[in-house]
Amino acid sequence: MKLFAALLLAPLTLFAKEDRLILVGASYGKNILAICETDGTVVWQYKTGGPKASNNHTGHHDVQFLENGNILFHDSWSVTSEITPKKEIVWKHDSKGANVHAFQRLADGNTMIAESGIGRIVHLDKGGKVVKEVPLPKDGRHQTRMLEILPNGHYLSCAENPGVVTEYDATGKIVWEYPTNTRVFGAIRLKNGNTLIATGSGNSILEVSPGKKVVWEMAKKIPGTDIELAWTTDLQELPNGNLVIGNCHAGDKNPQIVELDKDRKVVWTFDEYELVGNGLACWEILNTKQTALVRSLLKKTSLEK
Predict the structure, then answer these.
(1) pLDDT tens digits for 12-54?
(2) What pTM was computed for the model?
(3) What strand order describes the sheet that includes 243-248?
(4) Of residues 216, 220, 249, 223, the one with CA closest to residue 29
(5) Given strand 144-149, what is the order of strands in its sheet?
(6) DSSP per residue over 9-75, as a string?
(7) Domain segments of the chain: what residues?
(8) Rounded to whole angstroms, how far apart are CA atoms 271 and 132?
């Protein structure tokens, strides 16, 4: 009887959809940080200050969901903040004199911030003290967009001018670079060792091998669909191998986030122009564990009201 019951339940288990939420950070008009269901339903939101309240800041360019359920974001050109589900700011750092477009909370509790203009990568302890500093070349590469630390401790960085994706070692030495000749925004290192690049003004996505061979490319329009690619920005590789791409400044006729399966077919889109407007540059697809944490924390928060 137990075996029969297990066989009946097996198909449901095999085809059950993974529960996931979407973290989005939009500006250029909407000025919002939000967590949504996959259908766009908002479960949590925080209105950010926008240009009038934050020294003419108009671009949210990075956002990170943290292990404790808080969110790392920025609402000015120089200030990086950590906010709780209760909308309390519990950590803040002002990179005075710099423009911040990328940051990352690390496993050791420190925070990495790429300080454009100044042209350096800093690691800060919980008290905001600089515990590591890595200089960036003063030839345009010091003005970063997306930048993250790779598992090997290297830094993968994008620079709009001269339009390159650069891998630096832990000391800041260039060990690999790919020129896009566009105002490139985002790049991630895939599990297969290749690099996925969002070319920004190039309106395209391309996968490049370590030998700098283009494995595949998608430009201007997603084949087999009416989806036009505009300013391609954020990127994410999901555990199942699907790729998620950001489609910023694409207007109200195109989705802002697109998920592609292994055959590069569209399997999901986030199309919430009323919520995020034309300025959704950064977002993150939360996995099952992260989603469960959000739901638990929000339920607890609502009970405490």
Answers:
(1) 434 456 899 999 999 888 999 999 999 999 999 999 987 776 6
(2) 0.92
(3) 231-237, 243-248, 257-260, 266-270
(4) 249
(5) 144-149, 155-159, 164-168, 174-179
(6) HHHHHHHPPPP--EEEEE-TTS-EEEEE-TTS-EEEEEE--HHHHTTT-------EE-TTS-EEEES
(7) 22-304
(8) 40
Q: What is the CATH number of domain 22-304?
A: 2.120.10.30
Q: Which DSSP symbol is given to 239?
A: T
What share of residues in the chain are helix, strand, coil (percent, to 5)? Answer: 15, 40, 45
Residue whose pair of structure tokens reads 């993974």 in the numeric block: 18
214 bridge partner residues: 208
| Token couple for 91 | 């950590």
**φ/ψ (deg, to 5) at 141:** -70, -10
The whole-angstrom separation of Cα 119 and Cα 134 is 9
3-class SS of residue 172 = coil
pLDDT > 60? residue 155:
yes
User: Does the pLDDT of residue 116 top 60, yes or no?
Assistant: yes
Rounded-to-integer distance, Cα 273 and Cα 145, Å: 23
